[in-house]
Amino acid sequence: MSATIKDIARKVGVAPSTVSRVLSNKSKYYTSETAEKVKAAARELGYKKNQAAVELVKKQSNVIAAVVSSVKTNFAGQIIDGIQSEASKHGYNLIVVYSNSASAEEQRKALLTVIERPVMGILLLSIALSDDNLKMLKESDIPYCFLSMGFDDDRPFVSSDDMEIGYEATKFLIDKGHRKIGLAAIDKYPYTGRLRLAGYSKALNEANIVPDNSWIQSGDYSYTAGESAMKAYGKDTDLTGIVAASDMAAIGALNEARNLGLRVPDDLSIISIDGTEMCQIVQPQLTSVSQDFYKMGVVGVQRIEESVVNKTASKDHQQLIPVHIYERDSTK
Amino acid sequence: MSATIKDIARKVGVAPSTVSRVLSNKSKYYTSETAEKVKAAARELGYKKNQAAVELVKKQSNVIAAVVSSVKTNFAGQIIDGIQSEASKHGYNLIVVYSNSASAEEQRKALLTVIERPVMGILLLSIALSDDNLKMLKESDIPYCFLSMGFDDDRPFVSSDDMEIGYEATKFLIDKGHRKIGLAAIDKYPYTGRLRLAGYSKALNEANIVPDNSWIQSGDYSYTAGESAMKAYGKDTDLTGIVAASDMAAIGALNEARNLGLRVPDDLSIISIDGTEMCQIVQPQLTSVSQDFYKMGVVGVQRIEESVVNKTASKDHQQLIPVHIYERDSTK
DNA sequence: GCAAGTTAAGCAAACGTTTGCGCAATTAGA
DNA sequence: TCTAATTGCGCAAACGTTTGCTTAACTTGC
Fold first, then answer.
1. Which CATH number fits domain A58-160+294-321: 3.30.70.20, 3.40.50.150, 3.40.50.2300, 3.40.50.720?
2. Nucleic strand D under 7 Å from the C-beta of A51
3. Phi, psi at residue A182, to the nearest 5°?
């Protein structure tokens, strides 16, 4: 078994409490001479702190947990990068657990893994939590915050302004002179999709454009959803522009457009939502409404930190991160 | 504070030890009647096990830790999926920590996060560990296994056969009639790159082809490395086929080839190494030597399990996972 | 030279579990 | 009916830390 604080104490000829104080960098109660001896002994014995013991007595740790819906979403990486960087800056450690969004039982297990130990906060990355699991999370009294996902109730979250996303994307195409604009692969009913749809409608409305029902092709943000939407529009569509619900959906639509013999952007402009690096590796590169995922991670950590300090969620606990449009080669 | 086992004991009028036995599903030492009462009380009080306490006394947990080099690598997701699925099947939980490969200090922190608690095993996903950190890992006495990375010393690992990868990719092009074949964006010195290079050379050698120095463009497997390699080959290259070190490198080369006015596959065939979904979303779709990343994850968990059971690493602790070639549209 | 103040270091309790052991009550065997 | 085996359950120790309190030693001021 690994060496403990007592082994060090015995070796140096000092009390365990003193060793503890040295090793956890308390500023008082020992001489620098003792400190040196203790540290030397610790190194020599290959001492590793037993965090279980520490967390048991301190009832808190410096660990932030992130629960991620799936490995598939290609922006999760950027959010995690942001969390990691901000956490690291404050001396927190990050652990990530994955949970298949579909299964409530899997969600529960993932959540329990982090709730059952005294993590300082929980960040949920685009996870649609079941009611039971949400209840469990709330009851745990651990600060939490949803990332890249909004709600119309009082749950804390950090996300982009989905209404603005829908609005800006559509407006961008309108300003380029397009009048017939599709919305592809969006999931119309959940909060995010509803808001984007509302933004899309608002922009059209302001330009006195009345959308045809067929312009809106719902889907699940995936590559195949983009493909299907494009198939539904068809070769002879009178649309000249498309707002795609995600980068993957945009790529699906782009490839299918090519299959149909439509040239992007000459016959058809496509603007994508998300702005991950995917946009830059396809040809033509995709114009996008880019979300600042990295910043979401950073802000998420700050939210957790606030909750820990204030012992309560702050009032403005629902925060929107601005988006930016990057014009590339898929629109004209 | 959350309810403890003692609160339940008091409420039901029973000893804490009995509660513990009920809640951890011990098969004996209580009546089903007591069990019911205990479970009811636990539910009512919203009881959550304190894993820190459990781990402290048991000195082991059912948590497997994965250390990932970075969020950027697009195959890490597949490996994690495999780990997750196999772990879940055996009732283990998975936590993931990210570590920037570049910084030894970051690595150390990530490693400490998992070593300092009694995880049952550590999986390292394409992490080049510094000597100090490797030493620390070994001394921790926690079973570990490298994934998607091989070594010529005795460290346990699960990876593809990199020699075979280089060989098969090259042979595939040779069998298609190519004689002048480049190797792009590969890092020549580390074990992986060295082996792939050896496989490439072997295949050429068997076909009595003597490679020109300029055929091999080293790099770091990235998109830009693929781009640079293609730039180096140039518009007027006499190469007719290229083996790209990774999917991203292949896409970089593909896009640059288009910029140079070369048509793929008509003027130039490209075969990619990895076979992630990226291959299927670019145009033309990339022929690839596909690694079975999912399986690596699965086998990695099995390795950990063995080590835990046997209390020692098994003899054949370096395992190679077969690869498969998927012919798509970037070769002819 | 002595009281008061300061400092280093030790003692012991506490955190929430698990588990070996012991005891009492019940059941079985003869 | 008496002993032996079995069962349900409680007692208490243990896991490795942290930390409030106490003590001893040393310094300072007068």
1. 3.40.50.2300
2. no
3. -90, 160
Identify the three-state secondary structure at position A64.
Answer: strand
Fold of the CATH domain B58-160+294-320: Rossmann fold (3.40.50)
C-alpha A218/C-alpha A199 separation (Å) is 15
Name the residue type at position A25.
N
User: Which residues in chain B are contacts of A60 at CB distance < 8 A?
Assistant: none
CB contact under 8 A, B53 and A52: yes
Do A162-291 and A58-160+294-321 fall under one CATH topology?
A: yes
Contact at CB, A2 and B97, closer than 8 angstroms? no
Enter the tokens of residue B326.
């998927």
Give the number of other Cβ atoms within 10 Å of residue A2's Cβ: 18
Q: Report the percentage of chain A scoring pLDDT > 70.
A: 97
How many angstroms away from the CA of B82 is the closest CA of chain A? 11
CB contact under 8 A, A77 and B71: yes
Q: What does the pLDDT average to over A296-302? A: 96
For the stretch A175-227, pLDDT in tens is 999 999 999 999 988 899 999 999 999 999 999 999 999 999 999 999 999 99
> What percentage of chain A reaches a pLDDT higher than 90?
69
Question: Can you spell out the DSSP letters for B169-227?
Answer: HHHHHHHTT---EEEEEE-SSSHHHHHHHHHHHHHHHHTT----GGGEEE--SSHHHHH
pLDDT digits (tens, 9 = 90+) for A99-145: 877 788 889 999 999 999 889 999 999 888 999 999 999 988 899 99
Contacts of B77 in chain A (CB under 8 A): 71-72
Flag whether pLDDT at A235 surpasses 90. Answer: yes
Fold for B162-291, please state it: Rossmann fold (3.40.50)
Indicate the domain borders of chain B. Answer: 5-49, 58-160+294-320, 162-291
Question: What is the percentage of chain B residues whose pLDDT exceeds 90?
Answer: 68
With CA atoms as reference, the chain A residue closest to B89 would be A106
pLDDT of B183 reads 98
